[in-house]
Automatic annotation (TrEMBL):
Subcellular location, principal: membrane
Record PROSITE patterns: IG_LIKE
TM ranges: 290-315
Protein name per its UniProtKB record: Ig-like domain-containing protein
Phylogenetic placement of the source organism: Eukaryota, Metazoa, Ecdysozoa, Arthropoda, Hexapoda
Example GO biological process: synapse organization
Keyword set includes Transport: yes
Length: 710
């Protein structure tokens, strides 16, 4: 067996061996193409009768617990079937690729599309000893018998012999070489060995712990066993002709009751002539060793350079990714639980009536005469119902105006006056208590603002933004001069309760945050004139820390209420107002007008009844979703300061002597979410953010209108 340059120092030789195997022992470099471990070969004898390949070993030995493969190769099988039979009880173990034994240790091992039909026995028992037949269902039947003998495992102290493979423990050969391994099995003690050696059993060889069974793709491997009378040794010869990369690995010589021996072989790419494996190493030229060593060292150098560059590139990429994540989303949300140190606001409450004033008939009579309306008062009442109580959800009911079956009596510039004087208002309580700062006595009736929303005319209590949409000053820059005084509650303070009684009409009840206004998708409770119930609130405050104000809205993923530079129809910002702006733009795009409850810019047309029916044809105006792709048409930021409110209405009874609804803030929130910038000392706004002019219109007017408490 040829070794690599014994004159080269030991450590260098080891390094060369490792790298030579890595560089040259690849199946691709060796130039072979394998399919399922077997070389494909054309069948030049199709149509011939089946015939056994009878060069396999038919006397097999196995140790108890070993996994064994019985080989059977049948050429020209055609449409015949190969079966395995256990002779002692004529039990059919397998037929074709199917296994018929209830013992899961037996398994058919066919080669797909090939000639090999093996029987695998896992965990051999002593009772498995006996004869097994490989049969083909020809007429007459063909059969090939195999004899299996088993033995118990022996402890190390019970070995009867010792196997020894001559030569070094690791050998290297060029591909295409003829390799011969010689294994000597010597008895360990004369009294025990006499009977053992007299049996003259065959030497078995393992390749990578799998027995060499000399299948078709191993036809270049042969073995021979003989007995030396003079030395009382059993000699086993393993011969490999034309060694290839596939023959690399560990070879083990063993026999029953004999301690085995192993040797490793590495097949490397050939350069010129064959090298024959003998029982001694053949010396090679030192210059070739040095050349191989130089190539290996050069490859190692380039490999390390590549690894360093690769590691640096990965680290740089990860650092840039981390910075990009921080730059695009530097805000983290922390949960605070020191509820003793903060206070929570009572939410805004909206009541939207679903019926006209009882005195509407009198007003409509005056209105008809004042503006020379051609319709009767009764017709005008139906018209007002359609104007007040239709929304995006039921604009399709206005088709009668679009097809001309009913006249559109009122000019659109009179809609606000018509709505203002016919909408239902909650009666004011003469005993109402004035609210001062954050002090709010229990069971106090509140003061309401009259606002226009996407539900039409509504009355609002304790809203920070309602003053900007008051019906009494409904222009783009209009806002009431009412000072907003927040009503707050601290832990262990008395519950805050808003009581409203004496409803004479059905109302929609909304409970939202003070920084928000309702839109068409807001959830509500239906309150009838006979309702006697309580609304209980659970509130989670989401608060933006001061250190995130220096970030852009895209970075913090939210906007403050005075950052309304992108909203043309509102001077303040909230999530719902942003979605409201999207609906306005879609209304103008599809129907060239907007409903009366939106403020308008540059004399934008107000939708008449036919125009509002036009809006019903486009569901994306309501949902703000693309009807084809489902994508959001309005990617709005949430407000930086808002309340996540869960409301529950409990109906106590049906009360025929008047209605009463109470909104209660009893349960104080035990935690809140704080949006923070953990690296705010390093974060700086970009040059574009510093130089970008703020487009919020009339900031002085906003500051005068809303008085923030310290």
């Amino acid at each position: 067996m040829s070794a690599v340059c014994s004159e080269v120092p030991f450590n260098v030789r080891k390094l060369l061996q490792v790298w030579t195997v890595l560089l040259t022992c690849s199946p691709v470099m060796a130039g072979y193409t394998w399919t399922n471990g077997v070389k494909s070969a054309p069948d030049h004898n199709a149509g011939s009768s089946p015939v056994f390949d009878d060069f396999t070993i038919r006397e097999l030995e196995a140790t108890e617990g070993q996994t064994l493969l019985l080989p059977c190769t049948v050429r020209y099988l055609g449409d015949k079937v190969v079966s395995w039979i256990r002779s002692r009880d004529l039990h059919i173990l397998t037929s074709g690729a199917a296994t018929f034994s209830s013992d899961s240790r037996f398994e058919a091992v066919p080669s797909p599309g090939g000639d090999f039909w093996g029987l695998r026995i896992r965990g051999v028992h002593l009772s498995d000893s006996g004869q097994y037949e490989c049969q083909v269902n020809t007429d007459p039947k063909m059969s090939l018998a195999f004899n299996l003998s088993g033995a118990r495992k022996l402890e190390a102290s019970k070995w009867l012999g010792q196997a020894l493979i001559k030569g070094p423990r690791e050998v290297y050969v060029r591909d295409g070489s003829l390799v011969t391994f010689t294994c000597e099995i010597s008895p360990l003690s004369t009294p025990q060995s006499g009977g053992f050696m007299s049996a003259k059993p065959k030497v078995r060889w393992l390749h990578d712990n799998k027995e060499l069974l000399f299948e078709p793709f191993r036809s270049h491997i042969s073995t021979k066993t003989f007995f030396e009378e003079s030395s009382q040794k059993v000699i086993g010869i393993l011969k490999i002709s034309k060694a290839s990369w596939r023959d690399s690995g560990q070879y083990t010589c063993l026999q029953m009751s004999v301690k085995s021996d192993s040797i490793k072989m590495f097949v490397v790419e050939s350069e010129h002539s064959e090298a024959m494996q003998r029982d001694y190493p053949v010396q090679s030229c030192a210059s070739k060793c040095l050349l191989h060593l130089g190539l290996v060292l050069l490859f190692t150098l380039f490999l390390w350079i590549g690894l360093v560059i690769g590691a640096f590139s990965v680290a740089t990429y990860q650092a840039l990714q981390a910075w990009n994540r921080y730059d695009t989303s530097p805000v983290v949300i922390t949960i605070e639980k020191d509820f003793f140190n903060w206070e929570t606001e009572f939410p805004a409450v909206f009541f939207c009536a679903r019926a006209k004033l009882t005195t509407a008939y009198k007003f409509l009579k005056i209105f008809r005469n004042k503006y020379n309306i051609s319709a009767s008062v009764e017709q005008l009442e139906g018209y007002v119902d359609d104007l007040l109580f239709t929304t995006y959800e039921n604009y399709s009911s206005l088709e009668k105006y679009a097809n001309g079956s009913q006249d559109d009596f009122v000019p659109t510039d009179l809609y606000l006056e018509l709505v203002n004087f016919t909408s239902f208002r909650i009666p004011k309580n003469s005993n109402k208590t004035k609210i001062k700062y954050s002090e709010w006595p229990k069971n106090v009736n509140g003061e309401y603002s009259f606002v226009l929303t996407e539900f039409g005319f509504c009355q609002c209590f304790h809203s920070k933004v309602a003053g900007f949409f008051n019906i009494d000053n409904f222009t783009i820059d209009g806002a009431t001069n009412t000072t907003f005084l927040p009503i707050t509650k601290k832990y262990k303070e008395p519950a805050l309760t808003l009581s409203q009684s004496d409803f004479s009409q059905t109302n929609f009840l909304f409970v939202i945050g003070t920084n928000e206004i309702i839109d068409i998708t807001s959830q509500y409770f239906v309150v009838t004139p006979q309702t006697l119930g309580d609304v209980f609130l659970d509130i989670v405050d989401i608060v933006g820390d001061e250190d995130i104000k220096m970030l852009s809205p895209k970075q913090r993923n939210c906007r403050y209420w005075n950052e309304a530079d992108d909203l043309g129809h509102s001077r303040v910002y909230s999530y719902n107002l942003c979605r409201r702006e999207c609906r306005i733009q879609l209304c103008l795009k599809f129907c060239y007008c907007t409903p009366y409850y939106y403020k308008r810019i540059d004399n934008e047309p107000i939708c008449n009844m036919s125009g509002m029916f036009c809006l019903s044809k486009y569901p994306e105006i309501l949902t703000l979703l693309d009807p084809k792709t489902g994508e959001d048409l309005c990617p709005c930021f949430q407000s930086c300061d808002f309340q996540r409110i869960t409301a529950e209405l409990t109906i106590k009874a049906t009360w025929f002597f008047g209605s009463k609804v109470t909104v209660n803030l009893e349960r104080f929130p035990r935690e809140r979410e704080l949006e923070k910038n953990p690296l705010h000392n390093f974060a700086r706004p970009s040059i574009n953010e510093l130089t970008k002019p703020l487009k919020v219109a009339s900031p002085e007017k906003i500051d005068q209108t809303v008085n923030k408490p310290k």
